[in-house]
Design a protein that fits this description.
Number of strands of chain B: 0
Oligomer: heterodimer
Order of helices and strands of chain A: EHHHHHHHHHHHHHE
Shape of chain A: globular
CATH class of chain A: Mainly Alpha
Structural class of chain B: mainly alpha
Order of helices and strands of chain B: HHHHHHHHHHHHH
Strand content of chain B: under 5%
Radius of gyration of chain A: 21 Å
Number of domains of chain A: 1
Number of helices of chain B: 13
Shape of chain B: globular
Helix content of chain A: over 70%
Strand order of the largest sheet of chain A: 1-2
Largest sheet of chain B: none
Distance between the termini of chain A: 6 Å
Chain lengths: ~350, ~325
């Protein structure tokens, strides 16, 4: 058995294999659901209904997709340059912390001034968080996978420290949570009385900006070159380490915005459960989108729909909602396999 | 002064060895994978699967050793999946590993909730009891630290020797090291690179599974969510720290265990002045520092993370 590069890549294969991957993930989960004794068809119907069956469900899905677009873009940008940023979680919290620090009354500014300042602070926070492992990579050759992973734990403990110390809300009845952001720092809701907020629009705008950087700028070109072959890129005169650092600032900044958007748009304050693994899920989103920035939006909505739908299904059908995480993980593995097979074919001999 | 005296109590060294035990298994497992040229980021999830399946086996009435065996098999199965995706198919080892971790952990939690839909406090099992080695356990300090541990800890130390012996003294060990350094040369020697790499990843993942099972069958007596809590990632740092050598990896795990045991006691002592989170951060900070210190001398297996396709350069 061996793999052979495809000379022709017909559209049926390029589009069909990824679709097959999602189908495979669904079939695998249907099997797991069957083990629980529930009927897979009714469970999937409940997931679809819970994700998109009503205005409430649909808005909830888009709300959940918002942080995933940011973390998905963060992973897509970094992975393009083969900078293995697995620390989206830490960068998200860095952005969230700075939003809570400056947005809870420290800067009494009108909203048109305060919100951009908070966004910049969150971007800088996330960027700084990722620049540590990137500096260690470019300066000392320390593998960034492990350092970004370890920083996730350090960051979460640091947030816990802040929430029981300087950032603790004195009116929080002892709960580890920060004060609410002031009205000027809160992102407006898109529809009066609903949870979907302006962060979603910022996320879409971020995707467009990243798409332009990716396709139309020198940095985008350099990131691809470094990602495809760092040695060749260096030989061609591209400052590889500088490209890594620029990529890190962009990627970390995007993940930091996820923290900003969750605090200023949705939750209103900083808590320890602000992110149920959005940083890690962003990696799945980026891979499902094949690292395409606009695709990230679609993939984030798909993944959010699975999570929101499974939560709703779990309440009524009693199948554990962890099925959503299984579905997402299998989708990831099936998708990377499918994408590989759009480039290579299997030869038996 | 008091903080210094802690170091001379036997209990801290016993705790250090206990904390190091799961790390020894999992670090050896990752070491085998990486020596064969495959980074296995599935380690965190595979340890979760080991912890879960080991506990489930005993909870359902199985023997403790059967639990360890099942944990090893479950770990090996996820290792096989990882190996299949990254060795013959040549997928990105980073992305696949993260995917394996997500899949293994979420499957464990899903099945846990299926088996026990409505429990708030996780059910307990009867874990391994300490086994006093006659005579040796009477030696002051060393006896309590090393010879009054549970059988799984003795197995961990035994595995260090076994892995070192296999890697350096047996033909299969030479094959594993060669496919990790220079797969083309291995192929020229008639070694089946694909088969050796897949076997190494499976064996390594089985060890990770046992490492996970130590948590539920020896260290604690039930299964919690998020119970592996970054230990897998720390093991990846320990492999680098140990320069991909079993003996040094053991040393690293023990140092780490000692440090962790020390910070736990320091936490009780200085908890009033220093927030407890600072102590909990220490193991992760220490791992990063160890990586920085060792990175200058790091002799990565040459072909680590490079997929091998016959005839491709």
């Amino acid at each position: 058995m061996r793999l052979e590069p495809r000379e022709h890549r017909p559209l049926t294969i390029v589009g069909g294999y990824p679709a097959l991957a999602i189908l495979f993930a669904a079939a695998f989960c249907a099997m797991l659901v069957a083990f629980s004794g529930a009927s897979p068809f009714s469970v999937f119907a409940l997931i679809a209904k819970g994700a998109a069956g009503s205005q409430f469900a649909l808005l909830e899905t888009l709300t959940r997709a918002t942080p995933l677009i940011f973390t998905g873009l963060a992973a897509a940008v970094a992975f393009r340059a083969k900078l293995w940023n697995i620390g989206g979680e830490a960068q998200l919290y860095a952005g969230a912390v700075l939003t809570a620090v400056f947005g809870t009354g420290l800067l009494p500014l009108p909203a048109p001034l305060l919100i951009p300042i908070l966004m910049i602070a969150a971007i800088l926070g996330g960027a700084a968080m990722l620049s540590i492992p990137t500096f260690l990579k470019t300066r000392f050759g320390v593998d960034e996978v492990v350092t970004t992973l370890l920083l996730n734990f350090i960051a979460l403990l640091f947030v816990s420290l802040l929430l029981e110390g300087p950032l603790k809300d004195p009116m929080g009845l002892g709960w580890p949570q920060s004060k609410k952001v002031i009205a000027e720092a809160a992102l407006p809701k898109l529809i009066q009385g609903k949870r979907l907020h302006f962060g979603f629009i910022i996320a879409i705008a971020a995707a467009v900006v990243v798409w332009i950087i990716d396709r139309r700028s020198a940095l985008g070109y350099e990131m691809r070159a470094v990602g495809d072959n760092p040695k060749a890129a260096r030989f061609a005169g591209i400052p590889v380490n500088r490209v890594f650092i620029k990529t890190a600032l962009l990627s970390g900044g995007l993940a930091g915005l996820a923290g900003f958007s969750e605090v200023a748009g949705l939750k209103g304050n900083l808590t320890l459960d602000l992110s149920p693994g959005f940083g890690y899920t962003g990696i799945v989103v980026a891979m499902l989108a094949m690292l395409h920035p606009i695709g990230v939006v679609a993939a984030a909505i798909f993944v959010a729909a699975v999570f929101v739908g499974a939560d709703a299904m779990s309440r009524t059908a009693g199948v554990p909602s962890y099925i959503a995480q299984v579905m997402v993980a299998v989708s990831l593995l099936a998708m990377v396999t499918a994408v590989m097979f759009t480039r290579y074919r299997l030869r038996w001999r | 002064m008091e903080a210094f005296e802690i170091l001379f109590t036997a209990s801290i060294w016993a705790a250090a060895v206990r904390i190091a035990s799961p790390l020894i298994f999992a670090t050896l497992g990752e070491l085998i994978c990486e020596r064969a040229g495959v980074l296995n980021l599935g380690i965190e999830g595979i340890m979760t699967v080991g912890a879960f399946t080991g506990w489930l086996t005993v909870y359902l009435g199985g023997d403790l050793w059967l639990g360890v065996f099942v944990a090893a098999m479950a770990g090996g199965m996820f290792g096989l999946l990882h190996a299949f995706l990254v060795v013959p198919l040549g997928l990105s080892q980073h992305v696949t590993g993260i995917g394996i971790t997500l899949l293994a952990a979420s499957l464990s939690y899903y099945v846990y909730r299926l088996v026990l839909p409505e429990v708030t406090s996780p059910p307990k099992i009867e874990p391994f009891q300490p086994l006093h080695i006659p005579g040796l356990s009477e030696i002051p300090v060393i006896g309590e630290a090393l010879f009054r541990q549970t059988p799984l800890t003795y197995l961990a130390f035994l595995m260090v020797g076994v892995v070192a012996w296999v890697l350096y003294k047996m033909p299969i060990g030479l094959a594993i090291r060669t496919v990790g350094e220079n797969p083309a040369a291995a192929e020229a020697q008639g070694i089946n690179v694909i088969a050796v790499r897949m076997g190494a990843v499976m064996a390594g993942s089985a060890l990770m599974g046992i490492g996970g099972s130590f948590l539920t069958l020896s260290a604690f007596n039930s299964f919690f969510f998020e119970m592996v809590n970054g230990r897998g990632w720390i093991c990846i740092a320990l492999v680098v720290f140990g320069s991909w050598r079993p003996g040094k990896a053991l040393l690293g795990a023990l140092l780490f265990g000692a440090f962790d045991a020390y910070q736990l006691r320091l936490q009780q002592l200085a908890g009033a002045f220093v927030p407890y989170q600072v102590f909990l951060m220490m193991p992760f900070v220490l791992s990063i520092i160890a990586l920085i210190v060792m990175s200058r001398r790091a002799a990565y297996p040459r072909a680590l993370m490079a997929p091998y396709r016959k005839g491709e350069r």
